[in-house]
Amino acid sequence: MFFKIFPLLILVQSSIQSEFFFTNNSPFKSVFKREYSLFDVWVDCAERIPVLFHYTAEKDNGSLPRSSNFALDPEVSRNCQQLKYSTYYKSGYDLGHMVPANHLDHSEQAIMESNFMTNINPQYSTLNRGAWLLSEEIIECLRDVDTLRVYGGAIMGNNVTNDLFISTHEIEAKSGFILHNFSEDQKEMKQSVSWSIPTGCDYS
Q1: For the whole model, what pTM was predicted?
Q2: 16 pLDDT band (50/70/90 cuts)?
Q3: Which of 62, 112, 137, 169 has the most CB atoms lying inside 10 A of its own CB?
Q4: What residues sit in the active site (predicted)?
Q5: How confident is the model at residue 202, as a pLDDT?
């Protein structure tokens, strides 16, 4: 099966300062960046979903509860968002956070923003509560050791069996997700870890 890994992340170290930047070389031209208080997402208006995200995971110093209220982002055109903010009822899919609320639990505003549909993708329930959750828990532990830069995105595929939500939310479930994070420790060589998590695997 042919997959287009979108977006294509190219991490380029600046010769002037020790920061990293990425370039989006995707063929899709309808992508825009939405900046929130503690994270950024890149939304593809044609797909109506977030296709890339970035945030900084700092040492855990909060324990605010996660909200269960989802919503459309009032600052983003409805033409660029899912038609609804309701659950993917009886589909086997969860409302999957790209940027997890648990990594923002020191800010009520950021937790609220993480529940906008611009931060949500359909994720198969065993993926959302299995491998994706495990990656969040690993980052949760590592961020207490050092500040992390976290990037991730959706893997775009051409599997028509994923087209489950066209009639309800006007979106397609994606073929998987990628996640990359690296340490910001300036005293030692930066270390990184990446995951590629296909939707079709059994994570139970």
Answers
A1: 0.81
A2: very low
A3: 169
A4: 97
A5: 56
